[in-house]
Amino acid sequence: MSDNGSRSGSRRSPHATDEAGKVLALAGGVGGAKMAHGLQMAIPDGALSVVVNTGDDFKLWGLHISPDIDTVTYTLSGLASKAQGWGLEGDTWQGLEMMARYGRDPWFRLGDMDMVTHVLRTQMLHEGRTLTEATRDLAQSLGIKSAILPMSDQPVETLIQTTDGDLDFQDYFVRRRHADTVTGVVFRGIDESRPTQEVIEAIGAATAVIFCPSNPVVSIGPLLAVPGMLDALQASAAPTVAVSPIVGGTALKGPAADMLLSLGHEVSPYGVAAMYKGIIDGIIIDNLDERHASRIRDMGIAVEISDTIMKSDADRRALAETALRFCRSLAG
Ligand code: FO1
Protein backbone atom coordinates (compact mmCIF):
# COMPACT_ATOMS: atom_id res chain seq x y z
CA MET A 1 0.00 0.00 0.00
CA SER A 2 1.20 3.47 -0.74
CA ASP A 3 1.25 5.86 2.19
CA ASN A 4 -1.77 7.80 0.97
CA GLY A 5 -3.84 4.69 1.65
CA SER A 6 -4.61 3.54 -1.89
CA ARG A 7 -2.99 0.54 -3.53
CA SER A 8 -2.06 2.32 -6.75
CA GLY A 9 -1.53 5.60 -5.02
CA SER A 10 -4.03 7.28 -7.35
CA ARG A 11 -6.30 8.81 -4.68
CA ARG A 12 -6.03 12.59 -4.84
CA SER A 13 -6.74 15.48 -2.55
CA PRO A 14 -9.35 17.99 -3.78
CA HIS A 15 -6.71 20.63 -4.53
CA ALA A 16 -4.70 18.27 -6.74
CA THR A 17 -3.49 19.65 -10.04
CA ASP A 18 -6.61 18.96 -12.10
CA GLU A 19 -5.66 21.75 -14.46
CA ALA A 20 -2.48 19.86 -15.42
CA GLY A 21 -4.13 18.52 -18.60
CA LYS A 22 -2.32 15.61 -20.24
CA VAL A 23 1.10 14.92 -18.83
CA LEU A 24 3.82 13.03 -20.67
CA ALA A 25 6.73 11.57 -18.72
CA LEU A 26 9.90 10.05 -20.18
CA ALA A 27 11.31 7.39 -17.89
CA GLY A 28 13.62 4.45 -17.43
CA GLY A 29 14.68 2.64 -14.28
CA VAL A 30 13.75 3.06 -10.63
CA GLY A 31 14.10 6.87 -10.28
CA GLY A 32 11.96 7.40 -13.37
CA ALA A 33 9.29 5.01 -12.11
CA LYS A 34 9.09 6.79 -8.74
CA MET A 35 8.60 10.16 -10.41
CA ALA A 36 5.97 8.70 -12.75
CA HIS A 37 4.18 7.36 -9.68
CA GLY A 38 4.24 10.82 -8.12
CA LEU A 39 2.70 12.26 -11.30
CA GLN A 40 0.03 9.57 -11.33
CA MET A 41 -0.90 10.50 -7.76
CA ALA A 42 -1.01 14.21 -8.58
CA ILE A 43 -3.28 14.26 -11.64
CA PRO A 44 -6.60 12.68 -12.62
CA ASP A 45 -6.75 9.02 -13.61
CA GLY A 46 -5.90 8.57 -17.26
CA ALA A 47 -4.08 11.91 -17.64
CA LEU A 48 -0.56 10.44 -17.54
CA SER A 49 1.37 8.74 -20.33
CA VAL A 50 4.82 7.37 -19.56
CA VAL A 51 7.15 6.72 -22.49
CA VAL A 52 9.60 4.07 -21.33
CA ASN A 53 13.09 3.06 -22.42
CA THR A 54 13.30 -0.39 -24.00
CA GLY A 55 17.05 -0.33 -24.68
CA ASP A 56 17.56 -2.52 -21.58
CA ASP A 57 15.31 -5.26 -22.98
CA PHE A 58 16.89 -8.64 -23.54
CA LYS A 59 16.15 -12.34 -23.89
CA LEU A 60 16.85 -14.76 -21.07
CA TRP A 61 15.87 -18.44 -21.04
CA GLY A 62 13.62 -17.77 -24.03
CA LEU A 63 11.76 -14.98 -22.23
CA HIS A 64 11.46 -11.37 -23.41
CA ILE A 65 12.47 -9.24 -20.40
CA SER A 66 11.59 -5.51 -20.43
CA PRO A 67 13.07 -4.35 -17.11
CA ASP A 68 12.18 -0.65 -17.35
CA ILE A 69 8.63 -1.29 -18.52
CA ASP A 70 8.15 -3.72 -15.64
CA THR A 71 9.66 -1.34 -13.10
CA VAL A 72 7.22 1.38 -14.22
CA THR A 73 4.30 -1.08 -14.33
CA TYR A 74 4.96 -2.53 -10.88
CA THR A 75 5.56 0.92 -9.39
CA LEU A 76 2.39 2.46 -10.86
CA SER A 77 0.34 -0.51 -9.62
CA GLY A 78 1.82 -0.28 -6.11
CA LEU A 79 3.30 -3.78 -6.45
CA ALA A 80 7.03 -2.95 -6.77
CA SER A 81 9.55 -4.24 -4.27
CA LYS A 82 10.14 -1.44 -1.79
CA ALA A 83 13.71 -2.48 -1.05
CA GLN A 84 14.91 -2.96 -4.64
CA GLY A 85 12.63 -0.62 -6.59
CA TRP A 86 12.51 -3.26 -9.35
CA GLY A 87 10.74 -6.64 -9.20
CA LEU A 88 7.69 -7.43 -7.07
CA GLU A 89 7.19 -6.99 -3.32
CA GLY A 90 7.03 -10.39 -1.61
CA ASP A 91 8.37 -12.32 -4.61
CA THR A 92 10.15 -15.62 -4.04
CA TRP A 93 13.06 -17.25 -5.85
CA GLN A 94 12.24 -20.95 -6.21
CA GLY A 95 12.28 -20.73 -10.01
CA LEU A 96 15.83 -19.41 -9.88
CA GLU A 97 16.84 -22.21 -7.48
CA MET A 98 15.48 -24.70 -10.04
CA MET A 99 17.43 -22.92 -12.80
CA ALA A 100 20.59 -23.43 -10.73
CA ARG A 101 19.74 -27.13 -10.27
CA TYR A 102 19.55 -27.37 -14.06
CA GLY A 103 23.03 -25.88 -14.18
CA ARG A 104 21.90 -22.46 -15.40
CA ASP A 105 23.60 -19.42 -13.90
CA PRO A 106 20.88 -17.42 -12.08
CA TRP A 107 22.79 -14.15 -12.46
CA PHE A 108 19.70 -12.11 -13.32
CA ARG A 109 17.25 -12.38 -10.47
CA LEU A 110 13.82 -13.14 -11.89
CA GLY A 111 11.36 -13.79 -9.06
CA ASP A 112 8.65 -16.43 -9.31
CA MET A 113 5.81 -13.92 -9.76
CA ASP A 114 7.90 -11.64 -11.97
CA MET A 115 8.64 -14.65 -14.20
CA VAL A 116 4.91 -14.86 -15.03
CA THR A 117 5.01 -11.33 -16.47
CA HIS A 118 7.81 -12.38 -18.83
CA VAL A 119 6.06 -15.63 -19.80
CA LEU A 120 2.87 -13.76 -20.74
CA ARG A 121 4.70 -10.94 -22.55
CA THR A 122 6.73 -13.50 -24.53
CA GLN A 123 3.56 -15.45 -25.39
CA MET A 124 1.78 -12.30 -26.61
CA LEU A 125 4.79 -11.31 -28.73
CA HIS A 126 4.91 -14.83 -30.22
CA GLU A 127 1.22 -14.47 -31.07
CA GLY A 128 2.12 -11.40 -33.12
CA ARG A 129 1.04 -8.69 -30.72
CA THR A 130 3.29 -5.65 -30.42
CA LEU A 131 5.24 -4.75 -27.29
CA THR A 132 2.86 -1.78 -26.90
CA GLU A 133 -0.17 -4.11 -26.96
CA ALA A 134 1.41 -6.62 -24.59
CA THR A 135 2.37 -3.84 -22.17
CA ARG A 136 -1.15 -2.39 -22.28
CA ASP A 137 -2.69 -5.83 -21.64
CA LEU A 138 -0.51 -6.45 -18.57
CA ALA A 139 -0.87 -2.91 -17.17
CA GLN A 140 -4.66 -2.92 -17.55
CA SER A 141 -4.86 -6.29 -15.78
CA LEU A 142 -3.07 -4.68 -12.84
CA GLY A 143 -5.59 -1.83 -12.81
CA ILE A 144 -3.23 0.90 -14.03
CA LYS A 145 -5.07 3.89 -15.49
CA SER A 146 -1.96 5.62 -16.88
CA ALA A 147 -0.66 4.70 -20.34
CA ILE A 148 2.69 2.89 -20.21
CA LEU A 149 4.17 3.23 -23.69
CA PRO A 150 7.33 1.46 -24.88
CA MET A 151 9.42 4.02 -26.80
CA SER A 152 9.27 1.79 -29.89
CA ASP A 153 7.92 -1.57 -31.00
CA GLN A 154 11.14 -2.28 -32.87
CA PRO A 155 13.96 -3.88 -30.86
CA VAL A 156 16.73 -1.54 -29.66
CA GLU A 157 19.63 -2.95 -27.64
CA THR A 158 21.92 -0.75 -25.59
CA LEU A 159 25.53 -1.84 -25.97
CA ILE A 160 28.05 -0.54 -23.44
CA GLN A 161 31.58 0.04 -24.71
CA THR A 162 34.10 -0.32 -21.89
CA THR A 163 37.83 -0.47 -21.42
CA ASP A 164 37.28 -4.25 -21.18
CA GLY A 165 35.35 -4.54 -24.47
CA ASP A 166 31.72 -4.27 -25.55
CA LEU A 167 29.07 -5.53 -23.15
CA ASP A 168 25.32 -6.11 -23.48
CA PHE A 169 23.54 -3.73 -21.13
CA GLN A 170 22.43 -6.22 -18.45
CA ASP A 171 25.82 -7.91 -18.60
CA TYR A 172 27.39 -4.54 -17.75
CA PHE A 173 24.69 -3.45 -15.30
CA VAL A 174 23.80 -6.59 -13.35
CA ARG A 175 26.36 -9.33 -13.99
CA ARG A 176 29.40 -7.01 -13.74
CA ARG A 177 27.67 -4.59 -11.32
CA HIS A 178 28.37 -1.55 -13.53
CA ALA A 179 32.00 -1.60 -12.36
CA ASP A 180 33.56 -1.18 -15.84
CA THR A 181 34.68 2.19 -17.15
CA VAL A 182 32.30 3.22 -19.92
CA THR A 183 33.94 4.66 -23.02
CA GLY A 184 30.88 4.77 -25.27
CA VAL A 185 27.28 3.69 -25.69
CA VAL A 186 25.67 2.31 -28.83
CA PHE A 187 21.95 1.75 -29.39
CA ARG A 188 21.84 -1.26 -31.72
CA GLY A 189 18.83 -1.22 -34.04
CA ILE A 190 18.03 2.44 -33.35
CA ASP A 191 18.11 3.44 -37.05
CA GLU A 192 15.37 0.90 -37.83
CA SER A 193 13.25 1.96 -34.86
CA ARG A 194 10.52 4.59 -34.80
CA PRO A 195 8.23 5.95 -32.11
CA THR A 196 4.90 4.15 -31.96
CA GLN A 197 1.70 5.88 -33.06
CA GLU A 198 0.67 5.85 -29.37
CA VAL A 199 3.85 7.73 -28.40
CA ILE A 200 3.41 10.31 -31.16
CA GLU A 201 -0.22 10.89 -30.14
CA ALA A 202 0.70 11.20 -26.45
CA ILE A 203 3.39 13.76 -27.28
CA GLY A 204 0.91 15.69 -29.44
CA ALA A 205 -1.69 15.73 -26.65
CA ALA A 206 0.71 16.67 -23.84
CA THR A 207 0.32 19.97 -22.00
CA ALA A 208 3.41 19.22 -19.90
CA VAL A 209 6.44 17.04 -20.62
CA ILE A 210 8.60 15.77 -17.76
CA PHE A 211 12.00 14.11 -18.14
CA CYS A 212 12.10 11.93 -15.02
CA PRO A 213 15.31 11.70 -12.94
CA SER A 214 16.57 8.76 -14.99
CA ASN A 215 20.06 8.17 -16.35
CA PRO A 216 20.47 10.69 -19.22
CA VAL A 217 22.80 8.36 -21.16
CA VAL A 218 21.21 4.90 -20.98
CA SER A 219 17.60 5.61 -19.93
CA ILE A 220 16.59 8.90 -21.57
CA GLY A 221 19.37 8.64 -24.21
CA PRO A 222 17.77 5.75 -26.15
CA LEU A 223 14.36 7.43 -26.06
CA LEU A 224 15.71 10.62 -27.62
CA ALA A 225 17.73 8.63 -30.16
CA VAL A 226 14.68 6.93 -31.70
CA PRO A 227 14.42 8.66 -35.10
CA GLY A 228 11.47 11.05 -35.02
CA MET A 229 11.21 11.24 -31.22
CA LEU A 230 13.18 14.47 -30.84
CA ASP A 231 11.31 16.11 -33.73
CA ALA A 232 7.98 15.20 -32.12
CA LEU A 233 9.09 16.55 -28.73
CA GLN A 234 10.45 19.75 -30.24
CA ALA A 235 7.27 20.28 -32.25
CA SER A 236 5.24 20.18 -29.03
CA ALA A 237 4.25 23.52 -27.51
CA ALA A 238 4.13 21.93 -24.06
CA PRO A 239 6.66 23.18 -21.49
CA THR A 240 9.34 20.56 -21.01
CA VAL A 241 11.02 20.13 -17.65
CA ALA A 242 13.72 17.69 -16.53
CA VAL A 243 14.47 16.56 -13.00
CA SER A 244 18.18 16.13 -12.41
CA PRO A 245 19.17 12.56 -11.44
CA ILE A 246 22.49 13.95 -10.19
CA VAL A 247 22.29 15.28 -6.64
CA GLY A 248 25.26 16.55 -4.67
CA GLY A 249 27.74 15.27 -7.27
CA THR A 250 26.42 11.72 -7.37
CA ALA A 251 23.53 9.61 -8.62
CA LEU A 252 21.09 8.38 -6.00
CA LYS A 253 21.04 4.97 -7.69
CA GLY A 254 22.96 3.30 -10.48
CA PRO A 255 25.98 4.27 -12.56
CA ALA A 256 24.88 7.66 -13.96
CA ALA A 257 27.61 9.67 -12.19
CA ASP A 258 30.49 7.38 -13.26
CA MET A 259 29.06 7.18 -16.77
CA LEU A 260 28.76 10.96 -17.17
CA LEU A 261 32.32 11.40 -15.92
CA SER A 262 33.91 8.79 -18.17
CA LEU A 263 31.95 10.11 -21.17
CA GLY A 264 33.24 13.64 -20.58
CA HIS A 265 30.18 15.31 -19.06
CA GLU A 266 30.21 17.38 -15.89
CA VAL A 267 28.77 15.32 -13.02
CA SER A 268 26.27 17.92 -11.83
CA PRO A 269 22.83 19.24 -12.70
CA TYR A 270 24.69 21.65 -15.01
CA GLY A 271 26.10 18.65 -16.90
CA VAL A 272 22.61 17.13 -17.16
CA ALA A 273 21.08 20.44 -18.31
CA ALA A 274 23.82 20.79 -20.95
CA MET A 275 22.96 17.32 -22.31
CA TYR A 276 19.30 18.34 -22.64
CA LYS A 277 20.01 21.85 -23.99
CA GLY A 278 17.66 22.72 -26.85
CA ILE A 279 15.14 20.11 -25.69
CA ILE A 280 14.07 21.26 -22.22
CA ASP A 281 12.75 24.62 -21.05
CA GLY A 282 13.58 24.08 -17.40
CA ILE A 283 15.27 21.78 -14.91
CA ILE A 284 14.57 20.97 -11.28
CA ILE A 285 17.73 20.67 -9.24
CA ASP A 286 18.11 19.66 -5.63
CA ASN A 287 18.55 22.15 -2.78
CA LEU A 288 22.06 20.73 -2.37
CA ASP A 289 22.93 21.96 -5.87
CA GLU A 290 21.74 25.55 -5.62
CA ARG A 291 25.20 26.84 -6.57
CA HIS A 292 24.78 25.48 -10.12
CA ALA A 293 21.57 27.44 -10.78
CA SER A 294 23.02 30.61 -12.29
CA ARG A 295 25.28 28.74 -14.75
CA ILE A 296 22.29 26.71 -15.91
CA ARG A 297 20.16 29.85 -16.30
CA ASP A 298 22.99 31.36 -18.35
CA MET A 299 22.41 28.52 -20.85
CA GLY A 300 18.83 29.78 -21.27
CA ILE A 301 17.31 27.00 -19.17
CA ALA A 302 14.99 27.94 -16.27
CA VAL A 303 15.80 26.44 -12.87
CA GLU A 304 13.61 25.38 -9.98
CA ILE A 305 15.34 24.43 -6.73
CA SER A 306 13.58 21.82 -4.62
CA ASP A 307 13.90 18.66 -2.56
CA THR A 308 14.26 15.95 -5.20
CA ILE A 309 15.03 12.89 -3.09
CA MET A 310 12.01 10.56 -3.07
CA LYS A 311 12.01 8.45 0.08
CA SER A 312 8.23 8.17 0.49
CA ASP A 313 5.12 8.29 -1.67
CA ALA A 314 4.50 11.77 -0.28
CA ASP A 315 7.96 12.84 -1.58
CA ARG A 316 7.13 11.44 -5.02
CA ARG A 317 3.89 13.34 -5.16
CA ALA A 318 5.42 16.57 -3.84
CA LEU A 319 8.15 16.46 -6.50
CA ALA A 320 5.54 15.77 -9.18
CA GLU A 321 3.46 18.75 -8.03
CA THR A 322 6.57 20.94 -8.08
CA ALA A 323 7.30 19.81 -11.65
CA LEU A 324 3.74 20.50 -12.77
CA ARG A 325 3.72 23.95 -11.13
CA PHE A 326 7.06 24.70 -12.79
CA CYS A 327 5.64 23.65 -16.17
CA ARG A 328 2.62 25.92 -15.67
CA SER A 329 4.87 28.85 -14.78
CA LEU A 330 6.91 28.27 -17.94
CA ALA A 331 3.76 28.03 -20.07
CA GLY A 332 2.43 31.26 -18.57
N1 FO1 B 1 18.84 -5.30 -11.22
C1 FO1 B 1 19.87 -5.80 -10.54
O1 FO1 B 1 20.75 -5.04 -10.10
N2 FO1 B 1 20.00 -7.17 -10.34
C2 FO1 B 1 19.08 -8.04 -10.79
O2 FO1 B 1 19.24 -9.26 -10.62
C3 FO1 B 1 17.94 -7.52 -11.47
C4 FO1 B 1 16.91 -8.34 -11.90
C5 FO1 B 1 15.77 -7.75 -12.49
C6 FO1 B 1 14.69 -8.56 -12.86
C7 FO1 B 1 13.57 -8.01 -13.43
C8 FO1 B 1 13.52 -6.62 -13.65
O3 FO1 B 1 12.41 -6.08 -14.22
C9 FO1 B 1 14.58 -5.80 -13.30
C10 FO1 B 1 15.71 -6.37 -12.70
N3 FO1 B 1 16.78 -5.58 -12.31
C11 FO1 B 1 17.86 -6.10 -11.66
C12 FO1 B 1 16.79 -4.14 -12.59
C13 FO1 B 1 17.27 -3.81 -13.99
O4 FO1 B 1 18.41 -4.47 -14.38
C14 FO1 B 1 17.60 -2.31 -14.04
O5 FO1 B 1 16.74 -1.57 -13.23
C15 FO1 B 1 17.41 -1.65 -15.37
O6 FO1 B 1 17.60 -2.41 -16.48
C16 FO1 B 1 18.21 -0.33 -15.41
O7 FO1 B 1 17.31 0.66 -15.58
Mean pLDDT: 94
β content, as a range? 15-25%
Q: Roughly what percent helix?
A: 25-40%
Backbone structural class = alpha/beta
**H-E string:** EHEEEHHHHEEEHEHEHHEEEHHEHEH
Low-confidence stretches: 1-18
The main pleated sheet reads as: 7 strands, parallel
The gross shape turns out to be globular
Strand order of the largest sheet: 5-2-1-9-10-13-14
Helical stretch count? 13
Which kinds of small molecule does this entry bind, naming each only once? ligand FO1
N→C terminal distance? 36 Å
Mind telling me the C-alpha Rg? 19 Å
Got a strand count?
A: 14
Characteristics:
single chain; 332 residues; alpha/beta; 7-stranded parallel beta sheet; 13 helices; 38% helix; globular; disordered N terminus; binds ligand FO1
Descriptive overview:
The chain is of the alpha/beta class and 332 residues long. It contains 13 helices and 14 strands. The chain has helices at 29-42, 67-76, 94-101, 112-126, 131-141, 169-175, 197-205, 220-225, 229-235, 256-262, 269-275, 293-298, 313-331; strands at residues 23-27, 48-52, 58-60, 63-65, 147-150, 157-162, 165-168, 182-188, 208-211, 240-243, 246-247, 250-251, 282-286, 302-306. It has a seven-stranded parallel β-sheet, sandwiched between helices. It has a three-stranded antiparallel β-sheet with strand order 7-6-8. The protein has a two-stranded antiparallel sheet with strand order 3-4. Helix 4 crosses helix 5. The longest helix has 19 residues, at 313-331. Ligand FO1 is lined by residues 28-30, 56, 67-68, 70-71, 86-87, 108-110, 114, 170, 173-174, 219.
